[in-house]
Amino acid sequence: MSFEPMNTLEEKLIEAMNEPSARPDFYRELRNSQIYTIQGGADPIQEKSELAAGQSVQLLSVEMDGKRYIPIFSSLPRMQAFIQEPVQYLEIHALHFFQLTKGADLLLNPGSPFGKEFSAGEIESILNGSIFNAQESYVIEKNTQTMIGQPAEPPAELLAELSKVFEERLKNVICAYNAQVFNPRTDQAPRTLIAVSYIGKGDDIIAEAGKVAESVQVPFPPVEFIELNGSSGLEGYFEDSCKPFYLKESF
């Protein structure tokens, strides 16, 4: 299915789905964009509806994988491709819409090759700006002799179990990498390192992933985790030199 971008938001969406480093720009553009959503329970007329102060509207919802979402669209053609019948729709500023629908999960461009699921928590982080915050999680000492590199034999069982957990439970994980670290001053052997990139809140990611690491055997214990959130100092290494063992299909 072809996807010709109709506006800057759709250009940023394509870039964000192909390159994790472009995702902050997508969120910034989204915060400043108009989006489209379908009204339910209205007369079937293909026209735009204006939302007056204090007015309540009924919005169409869709189900995907057993979960309900409010569909939103990055342009009018995306909406028209999804629902090919007369509808009443709203064109509304994204932040205003996110405020109105707080607590709901949203689905951008359902049926399109370029779309995105937004959890209620992710929407909150977009509204308050915390999605752009870098959190302090891992500090590399100056002049350290610690070396980092790719393992000759990746811990296959660990990576498979982590991928399953990221896909099924920790859905805000964008991607994860495996490496080995070694400090000749303190280590007898390399240690296994898992680097995780995520959106929204990551308080439970390391704890949940740590439980998985404790349940499997790895060739080079212990297993250590770091968050790739802009402050670890290792973002460039992983993005430029490593292939992720886990990559979310649609972020």
UniProtKB/TrEMBL annotation:
The SseB protein C-terminal domain sits at 140-247
Q: Which Pfam families match?
A: SseB, SseB_C
Looking up InterPro entries in the UniProt record yields: SseB_C (IPR027945), SseB_N (IPR009839)
Q: Which residues form the SseB protein N-terminal domain?
A: 9-124
Q: Report what the protein is called.
A: Enhanced serine sensitivity protein SseB
Source organism (scientific name): Paenibacillus azoreducens
